């Protein structure tokens, strides 16, 4: 077997199994994350002093925001952990933290029972969940990208957002089911605890499953290179310090993520409130519109991801950024003036079609920019920072501008964010044609190179695909 062939792992039958296990954890993570937002209307009074209901809801919203602020810390800590101790271990820790947070919320006695300890425990639980979600994206994106079959990395990694969307839909379905089975009084007394317990138990099950995943070949080869370097007297560079050697890639990830993150939260999270508060569509109709649109949006992910394997990531990102820059203001403007549910669905779906150009490639396009030793940190930290500063603030900015009577300014704000992504997509070379995922699969015959992987491509993506097909 030649050295080039040895550097390319065969397409394993366990690829699908590994991807499914990775996505199940991602699903549970986002289910738990959205359960908090969905059920806060029921448990707000349980954790905060009796009085004004609005103040109680604002308190739970503030705790929700704390979770967003913890995401960059999670992206940093769990990203470094994944690069140093393995993607599989980091993913197991991530889902364990989320389960612990959900269990704490579900079992904590009310304010009337334990006083101020109730909101204190709630805050601690959300801190754990914020760390978890912050670290999950980078570790999950890295793992799915690395274990995927060469030539199909875009397709397999696109299931990360499939699992995120299923998590959202699952939280919504649990809420609908409980609302039908329980009275409002029962929901307020104990029913709201059920989804958190479900999330905690499911998370523990997924953690056990994740322990059975194969570690990625990229990580194992990197550890072998690192060990060879130690034998030669070369000390490994700390993850954060090593990451700073890739400023262009970091800037590209920031810019590419801003427009996509804002658009994702606008169309998947804020849109339902926008249709009710601005368009005047009934709450029940808005819920159905959002559910069906998100369901179709989920099926668009592997289609767009698979297409990126054929025509390149850059063209898919350009589809999102050009289309989003052009249609955002018209969609939101027209949607504000209609109460027709079919027209509203069509406009929401049109926006999500373009957003798919980002979400389907969000994992792979970033993973392909960084070498193995800093890949999880390079993907996770900048994404978490963007999610906290732009994703977490999208809805408050929209509501503040609406309250100020200049709601249309928000439309242009979203457009400007997408335009920034457009500039990045134009300037960045196609990651699929300069992929570090193929370049880093080199034999461990010496110390790891300190040069950016773009400058050290040993095996091109097409060569990797051809070699993988030839392997028995």
UniProtKB/TrEMBL annotation:
Keywords: Cell membrane, Membrane, Symport, Transmembrane, Transmembrane helix, Transport. Residues 18-433 form the Major facilitator superfamily (MFS) profile domain. Belongs to the major facilitator superfamily. Metabolite:H+ Symporter (MHS) family (TC 2.A.1.6) family. This is Putative proline/betaine transporter. One of its GO terms (molecular function) is symporter activity. The keyword Transmembrane helix applies. It comes from the Bacteria. It holds the Pfam family MFS_1. It is found in: Cell membrane. It comes from Arthrobacter globiformis (strain ATCC 8010 / DSM 20124 / JCM 1332 / NBRC 12137 / NCIMB 8907 / NRRL B-2979 / 168).
């Amino acid at each position: 077997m030649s050295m080039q062939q040895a550097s390319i792992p065969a397409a394993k039958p366990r690829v699908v199994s590994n991807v499914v296990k990775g996505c199940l954890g991602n699903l549970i993570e986002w289910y738990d994350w959205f359960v908090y937002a969905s059920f806060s209307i029921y448990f707000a009074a349980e954790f905060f002093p009796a009085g004004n209901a609005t103040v109680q809801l604002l308190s739970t919203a503030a705790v929700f925001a704390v979770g967003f602020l913890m995401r960059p810390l999670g992206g940093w800590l769990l990203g470094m952990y994944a690069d140093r101790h393995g993607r599989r271990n980091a993913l197991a820790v991530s889902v364990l933290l989320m389960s612990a947070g959900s269990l704490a919320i579900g079992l904590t006695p009310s304010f009337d029972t334990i006083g101020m300890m109730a909101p204190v425990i709630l805050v601690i639980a959300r801190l754990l969940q914020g760390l978890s979600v912050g670290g999950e994206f980078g570790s999950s994106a890295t793992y799915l990208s690395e274990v995927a079959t060469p030539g199909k990395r875009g397709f397999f990694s696109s299931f990360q957002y499939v699992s995120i969307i299923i998590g959202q839909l699952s939280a919504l379905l649990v809420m609908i089911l409980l609302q039908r089975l329980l009275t409002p009084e029962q929901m307020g007394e104990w029913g709201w605890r059920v989804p958190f317990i479900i999330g905690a138990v499911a998370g523990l099950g997924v953690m056990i499953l994740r322990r059975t995943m194969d570690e990625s070949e990229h990580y194992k080869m990197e550890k072998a290179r690192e060990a060879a370097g130690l034998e030669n007297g070369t000390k490994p560079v700390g993850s954060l310090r090593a990451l700073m050697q890739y400023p262009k890639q970091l800037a590209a990830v920031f810019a590419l993520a801003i427009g996509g993150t804002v658009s994702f939260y606008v169309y998947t999270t804020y849109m339902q409130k926008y249709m009710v508060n601005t368009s005047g569509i009934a709450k029940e109709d808005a819920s159905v519109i959002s559910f069906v649109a998100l369901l179709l949006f989920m099926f668009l992910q592997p289609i767009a991801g698979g297409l990126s394997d054929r025509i390149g990531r850059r063209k898919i990102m350009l589809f999102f950024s050009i289309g989003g820059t052009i249609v955002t203001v018209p969609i939101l403007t027209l949607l504000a003036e209609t109460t027709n549910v079919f027209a509203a669905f069509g406009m929401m779906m049109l926006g999500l079609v373009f957003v798919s150009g980002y979400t389907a490639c969000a994992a792979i396009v970033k993973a392909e920019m960084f070498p193995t030793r800093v890949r999880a940190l390079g993907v996770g930290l900048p994404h978490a920072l963007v999610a906290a500063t732009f994703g977490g603030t999208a809805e408050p900015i929209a509501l503040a501008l609406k309250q100020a009577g200049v709601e249309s300014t928000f439309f242009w704000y979203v457009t400007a964010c997408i335009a920034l992504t457009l500039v990045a997509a134009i300037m960045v070379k196609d990651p699929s044609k300069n992929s570090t995922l193929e370049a880093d699969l080199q034999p461990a015959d010496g110390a790891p190179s300190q040069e950016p992987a773009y400058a050290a491509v040993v095996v091109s993506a097409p060569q990797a695909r051809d070699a993988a097909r030839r392997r028995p």
